[in-house]
């Protein structure tokens, strides 16, 4: 067997040499949030603010097509959603307001005079265009689960209808949407990001993601306009003088990618004004006199997933046998010393969880209520493997599968310029080898990684992943049996029924506690079957230079950038 875990002590001694890539997920509220909007000084107009990412952004600069962190940091600066969310994650009107009497039929009204950066006025027809674009692509589009609940969307996708019957544009500013049935979260779930018809009407939906309208010349309705894109390196945004909420204070925002080893130095020198950063460098950033570190509970969690099957564009199929044994998966979780691992790689800002939900969401069950607690227990892990038939039959120190054949855990982790990513991945492989599971690690370029996961590339068998759960806590878009984002391809009929019932108004009505109990029951099934090993939930951190004012963070994310300003 392998030697004791020496990586932990080595890492702690050398951690200051490592700088991590920016953390994912959305931002949350805290009593320590930066509330510069309440500052007594009067906002000043002009100046440039520099926002840094220390991982190369993918460059899908449109809400309708992005799929990785980094791109969303950029998009939120130049494109606004129709619906916003307050500090309690409650939907509030932004560009659109709404009315409903039955949670199935909604009437939305747009503000007049909101313009795209190309000068065209935003109308409800741009929203219809976005919804039909997603529906035409169907299950291969990551937002299909946010559209397929509209009446007629599936028929449109299948070519049985020329339009989505549940969409009725009354006039340029009014639209009626009928969903296939009443749900508690139809409003929160519906895709609320329009797409400019003028920009995309001549582009086939399947070609849109690769078009210059997404990659190099994106337009939005937000406070800043994209003026220059250097792929993977930087984006220059200039003030939108005609912004519908009022002229922004800043003249320009520069988003640039920096080498992770330079993060602390650039913050210290003032060449970076704002940046998310990984908890591993928290002590270094906190020591800077010119920077405030904002800490707040996150809506993200990390996990190790297993490819249990494939996705055919419509349904998830559990048709890959290698990791189907529940005891094997449970053993691999018992084997991980998550407290130790989190302390080493996340500076204690994260904490282990036994469910696939962050605590900040109201549907999250208490960790202590989960049937299995998965405390670090090497002997328990070994016993489970013995029971499942994974035994070392040739005395080489590693276990064979129940048929006596070689068994190798093929583990994948995304790769960036951050050296701690490979270090933390290797630490996980060492935990598994300690219980006799031979493990092979491959680091995959981050820009290929999630494409391979979505396409069920057979080279990815066991994988490291993370989710920012967003404002709607409903797990169906991530764990339902008809979504591409169910990366482990897990199917459980009882679990699926619980998730469907939890949003069915005929089942739960307006009873929040009943809905919460259904989600708790779902979490218990997940906890026992562990189609993915929940590792930790993460607090978020953001570094902000002291010259930046007007920035507010709450559970729904940052306030609009048109309120930000810098002291001249």
Automatic annotation (TrEMBL):
<feature type="signal peptide">
    <location>
        <begin position="1"/>
        <end position="19"/>
    </location>
</feature>
<feature type="region of interest" description="Disordered">
    <location>
        <begin position="27"/>
        <end position="47"/>
    </location>
</feature>
<dbReference type="Pfam" id="PF00496">
    <property type="entry name" value="SBP_bac_5"/>
</dbReference>
<dbReference type="InterPro" id="IPR039424">
    <property type="entry name" value="SBP_5"/>
</dbReference>
<comment type="similarity">
    <text>Belongs to the bacterial solute-binding protein 5 family.</text>
</comment>
<dbReference type="GO" id="GO:0015833">
    <property type="term" value="P:peptide transport"/>
</dbReference>
<feature type="domain" description="Solute-binding protein family 5">
    <location>
        <begin position="96"/>
        <end position="477"/>
    </location>
</feature>
<dbReference type="InterPro" id="IPR030678">
    <property type="entry name" value="Peptide/Ni-bd"/>
</dbReference>
<dbReference type="GO" id="GO:1904680">
    <property type="term" value="F:peptide transmembrane transporter activity"/>
</dbReference>
<dbReference type="GO" id="GO:0042597">
    <property type="term" value="C:periplasmic space"/>
</dbReference>
<keyword id="KW-0732">Signal</keyword>
<dbReference type="InterPro" id="IPR000914">
    <property type="entry name" value="SBP_5_dom"/>
</dbReference>
<keyword id="KW-0813">Transport</keyword>
<protein>
    <submittedName>
        <fullName>Peptide/nickel transport system substrate-binding protein</fullName>
    </submittedName>
</protein>
<feature type="compositionally biased region" description="Basic and acidic residues">
    <location>
        <begin position="28"/>
        <end position="37"/>
    </location>
</feature>
<dbReference type="GO" id="GO:0043190">
    <property type="term" value="C:ATP-binding cassette (ABC) transporter complex"/>
</dbReference>
<dbReference type="InterPro" id="IPR050034">
    <property type="entry name" value="Opp4A"/>
</dbReference>
